């Protein structure tokens, strides 16, 4: 297994829509394992964040590790949680994002078996966050225009400071 470099906003690769996995190959399984190692103690990591435009992600909220391939959200509850989300691709930021409190999803597991699961609370939030990455959507896209402008200023200032 290997630690993978994480792309950070404003890298344009983060905005690309990922392609479905046609066949689960040893390379796909290795990528999932590398993503688990790279994620370490964080909640989730999507393939686009490590420069792979594939529809897969890993997540671990409650101690149960999920390796998700070709996810689909089948149902979302009307109850919405408004919580602070961090993102490995947007370091140092905590962003308020509305998410469905509960979802029902479908995905392939690493063995290629179709799974249908229901998630609620933080697992639901994480699944939605990582699914967004597969569609080129970042947490900052949920900010109001004013807050997005403030974020961009902070980000530019941070980038300038990091170059010194």
Give descriptors for this structure.
164 residues; alpha+beta; 5-stranded antiparallel sheet; two-stranded antiparallel sheet; globular
Question: Hey, roughly how much beta strand do the residues contain?
Answer: 25-35%
- Arithmetic mean of pLDDT: 93
Main structural class: alpha+beta
Report the end-to-end length measured between terminal Cα atoms: 33 Å
Q: In order across it, which strands form the biggest sheet?
A: 1-2-3-6-7
Number of strands: 7
Count helical runs. Answer: 3
Shape label:
globular
Percentage of residues in helical conformation: 25-40%
| Uncertain residue segments | none
SSE series? HEEEEEEEHH
C-alpha-based Rg, rounded = 16 Å
Largest β-sheet summary? 5 strands, antiparallel
Describe this structure in words.
The chain has three helices and seven strands. β2 and β3 form a beta hairpin. A five-stranded antiparallel β-sheet has the order 1-2-3-6-7, sandwiched between helices. A two-stranded antiparallel ribbon has the order 4-5. By secondary structure, the chain is an alpha+beta fold.
Can you lay out the helices and strands and say which pair or pack?
Blueprint lengths: L25 H14 L4 E3 L9 E5 L4 E12 L3 E6 L9 E6 L1 E7 L5 E7 H14 L10 H19 L1
What's this, in brief?
The protein is 29% helix and 28% strand. The chain is built from three helices and seven strands; from the N terminus they run H-E-E-E-E-E-E-E-H-H.
